[in-house]
Amino acid sequence: MIGVDIPKSATGPEPETPCLAMRAREAAKALGISERLLWEWTDRGLVPHIRLGKAILYPVDSLRDWLKQQAKTAGSSSDKRNSENCA
User: Which one, of 4, 67, 5, 9, lies nearest residue 33 by Cα?
Assistant: First the structure.
């Protein structure tokens, strides 16, 4: 039997598997905080996470939504502070 080598470029790139959740190290890096702070927030229930057995995962979509909400909350409180400083 004669084999034919097909170059990988001819078949196209393999589709990438989407990242649905991250481990603590990845999530902390993505958020720009220390892993230790992320663990503190996780223990206090401040940041969205799920437990799968012994593993703790941070769902990407939940983190994005949470971060947007944090930005809105921070923005509204800074707006209040700015209006308090204005005469």
Answer: 67
24: nearest Cα among 14, 15, 33: 33
CATH architecture for segment(s) 19-77: Orthogonal Bundle (1.10)
String of DSSP letters for 17-65? PP--EE-HHHHHHHHTS-HHHHHHHHHHT-S--EEETTEEEEEHHHHHH
* Phi, psi dihedral angles at 48 (to 5 degrees): -65, 135
pLDDT (tens digit per residue) in 7-62: 665 566 777 888 899 999 999 999 999 999 999 999 999 999 999 999 999 999 99
Q: Is 70 helix (H, G, I), strand (E, B) or coil?
A: helix
End-to-end Cα separation, the chain, in angstroms:
88
pTM to 2 decimals? 0.69
